[in-house]
Amino acid sequence: QVQLVESGGGLVQAGGSLRLSCAASGRTFSNYNMGWFRQAPGKEREFVAAITRSGGNTYYADSVKGRFTISRHNAKNTLFLQMNSLNPEDTAVYFCAADGSLLVHTNRREYSTWGQGTQVTVSS
Predict the structure, then answer these.
(1) Which partner from 8, 90, 103, 116 sits 20 to 30 angstroms from 39, CA to CA?
(2) What is the pLDDT of residue 98?
(3) How many CA atoms within 13 Å lie on the side-chain side of 77?
């Protein structure tokens, strides 16, 4: 099973940017479709973005489309989430997740492996 560790979270002002990273180890990273999810206090964990094994296809939640970019570097076993034009509604713990199935999913229940999360706080 692959192990995942997120980093790059922090406190940023509205309109600012952050870049999250997710380092993978243990199994072949390129065998997994990958996703980013987030969970705000008192809310369910929600889909943010997903990317296919090769990185050739990406998918986004409507709330982040045009502002966030998911990417991966398979040779470095790393997943990224570039977040621009952040607003306070983006405040949450962000998780990366791995899915070994053939299809790309937006449902969190399809992902078998999760990182511990990194806090993103956007001040107004």
Answers:
(1) 103
(2) 97
(3) 11
Confidence grade of residue 57 (pLDDT, cut at 50, 70, 90): very high
Largest CA distance in the chain: 40
How far, CA to CA in Å, does 11 sit from each of 15, 47, 79, 110, 118?
12, 21, 21, 30, 11
Q: Which of 48, 51, 52, 79 is nearest to 65 (CA)?
A: 48
Residues 38, 93: contact at Cβ < 8 Å?
A: yes
Model confidence at 27, pLDDT cuts 50, 70, 90, reads confident
SS3 sequence of 91-102: CEEEEEEEECCC
